Amino acid sequence: MAPIPKRGTVAVTGAAGFLGGWTVRLLLDKGYRVRACVRNVEDAARTDFLKALPAYASGRLTLHGADLDQPGCFDEIFKGCHGLAHISHVSGYTDIDYIQRTCDHIIASVNGSGSVTRVVVTSSIAAIISEMDLQEIVRRPVFYEDRYPDEMNPKRTPERGQGYSMAKLIAERAFSDAAIASGPGSAAWDAITCCPGDNVGPIQSAHQKDMGPWQHNIETMLLGDYRQNDVYRPWMTVDVRDDALCHIGLLESTEVKNGERYIAWSCDTRNVEDICADIDRLLPELRHDTPDVVDPFPERIQAREAEFRAIWAQCELRNDRIRAVTGVTFRPLDESIRDCVESLISVAGVKVRVRA
Ligand SMILES: NC(=O)c1ccc[n+]([C@@H]2O[C@H](COP(=O)([O-])OP(=O)(O)OC[C@H]3O[C@@H](n4cnc5c(N)ncnc54)[C@H](OP(=O)(O)O)[C@@H]3O)[C@@H](O)[C@H]2O)c1
Which fold has domain 9-346? Predict the structure, then answer.
């Protein structure tokens, strides 16, 4: 099927979000026309940063209100679009039937558009690495595109916190199956999945400081309170701007094929306590009062800290495939942390706890 034409029209769901907002901005920088989908166009706190972009003044960027919970609301928005970056979250990750319904809504609107030829679906590394049994990581420590969590594990349920990773896999498969069903013919489209790592980087609007979670975690570090990450997993990061460029690269690529998935991460990993300390290392002028990282886990988990850290330390992260098809060069994490901190202060007015 077809990549999007240069300067074509792209719809972006979740456009007021951290990643969606950067995807909109970088698509515009590359000359595309963008239809930014948000839930409420009139919500100034969430949409003013989009309306302030120069392309909004000319009409090259337009904003559209649509909620995934309402079937049919994307129908008119997608008509005439060449591509769709389906980035948005859904309203919740506990009801698997609801997840399937949200996919069905979007797929019906793509099918009805008569113009969309490529959809990039945002999944997550959760759909790669989320294991109920960490011994799976010992057995299969290389994280690359063909790797899936052990989906047969009976403990893998929304009730046990796996709703998000399960939902992402449902979406990946729903879109690639629908894309197969769409062709051959002039109405055919393909679906490519992007699985981003932990997004770090600058926010563009104050409301984004509470989203994330990673930029919000850096905010809490700045405020002087930070908690250990789940089972001591290090952050496995991508700069949000590079992630957006990966999405655009997948829309443009002539090499990708329907049903393929690509991991967007820099392969940098860093432990939480080091990220906390890095703020002072990268921006000594701030005089950030580095907090001690609180360990909120029960004793039985704390007793296994060394074991868990050893499991994570042996993981090998790979990004060969996405670099080959998009040509994206990933920024170092230091740059993402620095720019995140500066934006939290300048855009969202975060008051940093400083040393006496
Ligand atoms: N951030 C990360 O580290 C990370 C890592 C891996 C994967 N991802 C994936 O990347 C995508 C974007 O993440 P993000 O961090 O940029 O998220 P975000 O900042 O929270 O933005 C998500 C957007 O989703 C929209 N949304 C939520 N429910 C919706 C619904 N029912 N209908 C329509 N729109 C809805 C919201 O729109 P409004 O603002 O208009 O209400 C929100 O702006 C998500 O799919 C996430 O799973 C993120």
Answer: Rossmann fold (3.40.50)
